[in-house]
Amino acid sequence: MKLSKWIVGLAWVFLSGMAWGQTIAPDVLVKNTTSEVLEIIKKDKDIQSGDLKKITALAEEKILPHFDFEAMSRAVLGKNWREASKEQQAQFVTEFRTLLVRTYASALAKYRNQTIEYKPLRAEPSDTRVTVKTQIIQPGGPPLPVDYTLKLVGDAWKVVDVTIEGVSLVTNYRGQFANELKQTDIAGLIQRIAEKNKSGTVVEPKKQG
Predict the structure, then answer these.
(1) Which listed residue, 80, 98, 153, 159, has the most CB atoms within 10 A of its CB?
(2) Is the CB of residue 26 less than 8 Å from the CB of residue 186?
């Protein structure tokens, strides 16, 4: 899958108990966040011109707090998570989060008035894991389906995976990192991601198979 599709999908859809009670419903959370972020972008000329400092700050403040990075890290590493030390687990979460922050920043810089459609949420009030289905409408191109998997953590919904055109972000990174771990150990993988983060290079999720 081309990086451009991952970038657009990752950022623009989301920019986009247990009865649920006072908890904000997952589809409402996605819509509210989307509206707020897009409104900020439309009004901020620095972001529109590609100010990465402001773009990163926007992603950090408005988007990433809705992700469960530890859950995503556990899923991405699989058995390697259990074999890692507590310190290595914490280091991996930090570096993986930074990787995604920078991916979002790149995506925000590419915003060109895409619009988002939301599918009706199919879930029961007792569900603690749901999928919010959406699609990005791109001028001159076919709709891009992007689904968010959210899990109820305490009293808040958190994103634990993103699926673009039927391909899971977690599954892609898991395959990519598993291949790298055949050549190195968890410490080596963390170091590689950290070096890419420092250099400003995005570690792209690559379609497996």
Answers:
(1) 159
(2) no
* The predicted structure's pLDDT at residue 94: 95
Yes or no: say if 162 and 169 are a contact pair by the CB < 8 Å rule: yes
Please report, for residues 8, 124, 136, 185, the alpha-carbon distance to residue 105 in angstroms, rounded to integers and kept in the order given. 11, 34, 18, 29
As a whole number of angstroms, the distance between CA 71 and CA 155 comes to: 16
Residue 90 token pair? 């914490």
Query: CATH: 3.10.450.710, 3.20.20.70, 3.40.50.300, 3.40.640.10. Which one for 3-199?
Result: 3.10.450.710
Instruction: Please give the span between the terminal C-alpha atoms of the chain, in angstroms, as a whole number.
Output: 11
Residue 199 tokens read as 């250099």
Average pLDDT over residues 79-89: 96
Question: What are 200's two structure tokens?
Answer: 């400003």
